[in-house]
Amino acid sequence: MHTLKPIVDARAPHGKMKYGKCALLTNLHGRDMLTRKYDHLRNRIQNLGSALIAYSGGVDSTLLAFAAHVVLGERCLAVLAISDVHTAGEIEGARATARDLGLRLLEVETYELTDPRFRMNPADRCYYCKSEMFGLLRTVADARGIKWVLDGSNADDASDHRPGRRAAREYGVASPLLEVGLHKEEIRTLSRELGLPTWDKPSMACLATRFPYGTPITEDGIERVGRAEQSIRDLGIRQFRVRAHGDVARVEVEPEEMQHAWELREAVSAAVKAAGFTFAAQDLEGYRTGSMNDALCNDELTLDTSGDEFA
To answer: What is the pTM of this model?
Structure first.
């Protein structure tokens, strides 16, 4: 069962985008490669005619949603999936960004935790999550006469374990950022030049990525990780993950922030234990995308090799 909420028209008064296309592009002068890629992106979107954007408020989907709204106007709709595996702060941040940029936003609710295959947390867990979401977005698009569903996969995603890409292919989801060859750092640079507030936003991902494959995902486990991460974020640490290993919280921190986190170790430990963990440990390798994939064998890694957002 899914729940759809009314469209929120977050655009400026009189239906105009808050940022004009011409004004934005002037900041890109001199960046030939990025300018060409951004032009290709806009042309690719223009040729689609109409598009629904799988929007999360992250760096990638925000750039995609922004470009699509500039190019397509009323023929574009950003859709934000509300779920227990995303924190309230993340969802509210996505709403605020949509309001700031003037996006037409629709919220839908998804229920991954009701799927026993997802809860079992296999190596292709993200396939089941994305299959539900893309199926719902395809239904919304069809009901509104929108031809294409787009996601924010980028060129870096082709080299990681990403089972969600299989679901994207099955539902005909297009990935324009990937198609035009935009990498994560290029997307951040473009976003900064375009004045998007997400240009330096820390990478985010669904809370299910905090658990080793094979460890069942439960409401209590998700809530415990979410509380621990919010408390650490409140300490001023920006890019990190709390990986749950039973009663042990393994805290991965961006290498540039590791010294700061160590200086705050008593507060970090207290935050983790207050969330319900017995032990707190700081990972010596620091934060890295998809670290839970380290435990997968080659056969599991080749289930699919591109797609959704791990962290």
So the answer is: 0.85
